[in-house]
């Protein structure tokens, strides 16, 4: 992977935001958030990562300092006059249902980034959930990406389907949640929906099912990652972006990318996301260490193992 | 396991019914059904199984003949004057939502079985979803059961909680679906709900999550079985009972029961249930072979494996 030394192997384009979140377990206003931020904090556990995004003059230096302290390259993060993108959401006790209270695009509305020259040879690219035309515009600027993954949302599936499908056809990995997969294909069965997506070009599709785990479909195989058995979920905001960050961060640290690496990437994505939801906003992610990730990854691997030594333990008494 | 030779190692008590089911993919009236029937057909793929239940004079000989042809012992199946238990249900395209059209208890209403003497030494017992007082009454008649598993439903959780908890405390394995687990404990988080159930006596709890797989919690561990990636689900009726039948059938064929066996039992339960839902009623189960089960079990095992040889395949081109 020929790239200028000092340039991060992984690039994310997405929102950098100030989030206001209310959950039954706590609430906070104008927290550091946005898809590119969750992604970068997760990915930086594995490799250095660059962010392409935009913030306003109200964005705090302490937020920039936090990202830099994690090895995040901010050359591609523009700071322009105006207010930072803001999002507000509210969760009830069923954390699967959330209500968006407001979305203020602000400086994001006019965002059309030209990549810094040294970013154009980045091998791993993640196209966060933004206008598919903008996703394509960024992808066009990369000279020879090795793995390109992308995300989207209902808003673009419904409003810009043609542009979206054109980007989708150029992806190595498309990430969707279950409702997006159904909406994109009109197919209620998730396996058939995923196969239909594969037929449109991506080499793999990852379906994030939140508290039900994640499924990856390749042309020749299927991998299933269970949900990590969490006893407390505080704030699911950013879980999908965190998953993507763990997934791409792990891959960007691999010498080759085959099915084995993709499976482990899904597992690492799930593990990092399982930490992220344990506290409000990016709090848990900001304090997370690679050691903690590896510890939970080990437990994770044990959760689905079928070939334990037979009869090693007898938890059920034979009265 | 001292038992009279010729007596099945596994006993199920539950409903034997005539089901009328309507789905977007087909419908049928007065089909062979009931929890004990789905259970027995699934379990008989592994070991001989005995049914304790009751039918009316309208129950067809061909149904009895089908069960006998699968090695099901019917000494404990009473045939009494009156009509057989009938259930009618309807599914829409979202097969997770079903509408019960009618439930006619008929001969089941007065059912209070005294077990045939040779059943009283059966080592493996499954208490299907019936009145918990009746579950206790049957359990009392077994001299020295090795593994007792049980099922229940919202109706008993809401209406006979005290009786139910008394039976639950005597179980080795309690099987619940996710909504039952939440209702029983008042705890929305499934992991905490499962732990709370464990504290009430059962040595393990299996939470069936339908299209999202199954989770087993032991005091010292957690196992997760993914859903089998089905492209067509025709009729989910009896899937939970089929799961239980595959689970207990597999265990009843093991020499010892430890965590390894319990994990495999969850896997076999999931596999057999994945076949059952592919056709109306018990059609698919009635034709299912052990070879087919083992074939899908093999695929099932591959779905969660993390330690594929690294870089063996490169499905994603490195351009």
Summarize the structure.
The structure is a homodimer of 319-residue chains. With 319 residues, chain A is an alpha/beta fold. Chain A has helices at residues 35-43, 61-69, 132-141, 154-159, 161-168, 178-185, 190-198, 239-252, 259-276, 283-287, 290-302, and strands at residues 10-13, 17-23, 26-33, 49-55, 72-73, 77-79, 85-91, 98-104, 124-127, 147-151, 173-177, 204-208, 214-218, 221-225.
Overall description:
2 copies of one chain form a homodimer. By secondary structure, the first copy, chain A, is an alpha/beta fold. Chain A has 11 helices and 14 strands. The first copy, chain A, has helices at 35-43, 61-69, 132-141, 154-159, 161-168, 178-185, 190-198, 239-252, 259-276, 283-287, 290-302, and strands spanning 10-13, 17-23, 26-33, 49-55, 72-73, 77-79, 85-91, 98-104, 124-127, 147-151, 173-177, 204-208, 214-218, 221-225. In chain A, the strands form 2 sheets. In chain A, strands 1, 4, 5, 6, 9, 10, 11, 12, 13 and 14 form a 10-stranded mixed β-sheet that branches. Chain A has a 4-stranded mixed β-sheet with strand order 3-2-7-8. In chain A, a hairpin with a 2-residue loop joins strand 13 and strand 14 (221-225). In chain A, helix 9 crosses helix 11 (290-302). The longest helix of chain A is centred in the C-terminal third of the chain and has 18 residues, at 259-276. Chain A is globular, with a radius of gyration of 19 Å. The N and C termini of chain A lie far apart (62 Å). The mean pLDDT of chain A is 92. Chains A and B meet through helix 7, strand 13, strand 14 and helix 9 of A and helix 7, strand 13, strand 14 and helix 9 of B.
